[in-house]
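Appendix B. Raw example, untouched.
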Amino acid sequence: MTGNHKNTSITRRRALAVSGGTVAAGGLAVAGFQSAFADTTDSADADASASASSTSSECMTLMTSVTEGPYYLDGALVRKDITEGKAGVPLTLRLTVVDATDGCTPVKGAAVEIWHCDAWGYYSGYTTANPGGSAPAESEEGDSANDQTYLRGYQIANANGVVKFETIFPGWYTPRTCHIHVKVHTGGEKEDGTYEGGIVNYTGQLFFDDDIAEEIFTLEPYSKHTGSYTVLADDMVYDGGGASSGLLTLKAVHKKDPSKGYKGSLTLGIDPDAESTGAGSGGGGTPPSDAPTGTPPSDAPSDSASPSASASS
């Protein structure tokens, strides 16, 4: 865990959580998974259910903060679908944000920000950065995505602390394993299509089971990127801690056809009173010297303009 607490007077409950806490033997994990995949999330009944499940089990440990990596851009758009037409295996990502220092109560209004590379290992804003191995140029994909904004976005947590993104399964780049970057913000507000103000409570990365990732990478368009893929055990950032280190729970939409997509879920245990600088462990590569800065262009696509990802066979 990283970050400086605003209040140095820590209660016994908070001290236990910050120093490690305990992971429920199944109650929190099951409750988190079920609430993450529930379709009704704003009703009074759902609120009561989430509160009951969070207080009836022991609280999980705080998530492990790590580096934000070299490909971060300010000003990502608030939207559910971040694909912008990028080709790949569909991924529905549901994340549940809870306060790990207060009985794992949902953090309503938390802004969850994610960003990741496309099927060939390219990030928006950095499309000339070589992903390693052998891959076509990003421009050869022939999609309609905006090169400054694709596969980046925010969602605001509902009353159950839940956010949902529609995206594609990420590719990979040397020397990293397959991953998604994530930040959790609180205290700010939506403004001009993005999220402004507040503090960053958690900076981390989400990871994928090796067997699933390697199967996905045999499919088009992923298979056009060849080279030495880094497995979890050899990654410079993932520390082997499972869910508390960002390992997603994945469920295939169709077990016999991985091209149909996956549902991924994880509960993010944060401390809303602490700030994470993004200066955690691990590297992630070096961006090109001409990396862009600033906010997305004015013609960046919104949710309503973003087509769904296509599954490749």
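End of appendix B.
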